[in-house]
Design goal:
There is one protein chain. The protein has 281 residues and is of the alpha/beta class. The protein has one domain: Rossmann fold, CATH 3.40.50.150. 42% of the residues lie in helices and 23% in strands. It is built from nine helices and eight strands. Strands 1, 2, 3, 4, 5, 6, 7 and 8 form an eight-stranded mixed β-sheet that branches. Strand 1, helix 2 and strand 2 form a beta-alpha-beta unit. Helix 1 packs parallel to helix 3. The radius of gyration is 18 Å and the shape is globular. The relative contact order is 0.16.
Length: 281
């Protein structure tokens, strides 16, 4: 797939997914996103970049840690995600952090993973929670992380793990059966053992620590499970373009794929997360 086409799919897809993502995914992923931020070992007064910020969960966590002497910038390919993040930040700045203490200034911009617009060495830490899978050019995305980090700066990222460890993975072939091109190619490749380490080291970062963790994703009903994966995830753009009969077929097939994880009326779907941290020499 051409890079320009893939970038448009990501941009407009996440625009269309923003409402369902905020409603169905943020409650499920917030604690994992916060874990990714905490692994960066942020300190008061530091400058932080949050890549693929989405609705700004990681950026807000970082802002509460670095405080008023620090600064946090969040970037995302989706205009609607950026707007949601800015709205959340405005509310948080008005009320302070969880302890009512002032938080750092927050800036949100629509930018690509591969071109953040920041200067060389502009940040003490870079966070990327559940976003690197969507880079158009992964080599460029990792190189950009390295470029914008100051000497001694840290990167902390997390991605979905191995395909076979993610119980919801059949959503991709189910949707792909009804579109001409793959919706999200190579989605799970960064979750292969050693993949993040390889990309970090290629970009010149050192002291890489990689950890895979099993997690369980819980949704309260079939409607919630489908809304999360079909309306609020990477296949959202294709889903919105499907005719009603195709939507019904895709929904049935997806629910059948996660049927082993149904517990009464709710679902407990196994998955895997890979965390990785690194440092710029």
């Amino acid at each position: 797939m051409q890079a320009s086409l893939f970038r448009r799919i990501q941009r407009y897809g996440w625009d269309s997914a923003s409402d369902a993502y905020d409603r169905e995914w943020v409650p499920v992923l917030e604690h994992l996103t916060n874990d990714c931020v905490d692994r960066a070992r942020l300190r008061s007064g530091e400058r932080v970049l949050d890549l693929a910020t989405g609705t700004g969960i990681a950026a807000l966590r970082a802002a509460r840690i670095v405080g008023v002497r620090g600064a946090v910038t969040g970037v995302d390919i989706s205009e609607r995600m950026v707007a949601r993040a800015a709205q959340s930040a405005k509310a948080a700045e008005a009320t302070g952090g969880t302890d009512r203490a002032p938080i750092s200034p927050l800036v949100f911009e629509r930018r690509d993973l591969e071109a953040t617009g920041a200067g060389d060495g502009a940040f003490d830490a870079v966070i990327a929670a559940f976003g690197l899978m969507y880079a158009v050019d992964r080599q460029a995305a990792f190189a950009e992380m390295s470029r914008v980090l100051s000497p001694g700066g840290r990167a902390s990222v997390c991605v979905w793990g191995r395909r076979q460890a993610c119980g919801w993975a059949e959503v991709f072939p189910i949707v792909d059966a009804h579109v001409k091109s793959e919706v999200c190619p190579l989605f799970f490749s960064l979750g292969a053992p050693g993949a993040l380490r390889l990309w970090f080291e290629k970009s010149g970062l050192v002291d890489v620590v990689e950890e895979s963790l099993p997690v369980t994703l819980c949704w309260a009903s079939p409607d919630n499970a489908c809304a999360a994966m079909l309306e609020g995830g990477p296949v959202a753009l294709a889903w919105r373009r499907f005719a009603p009969d195709i939507r019904a077929e895709v929904r049935r097939a997806y629910l059948a794929s996660i049927e082993p994880y149904r517990r009464g009326t709710h679902y407990e779907v196994p998955s895997e997360i890979v965390f990785a941290t690194a440092r710029k020499p």
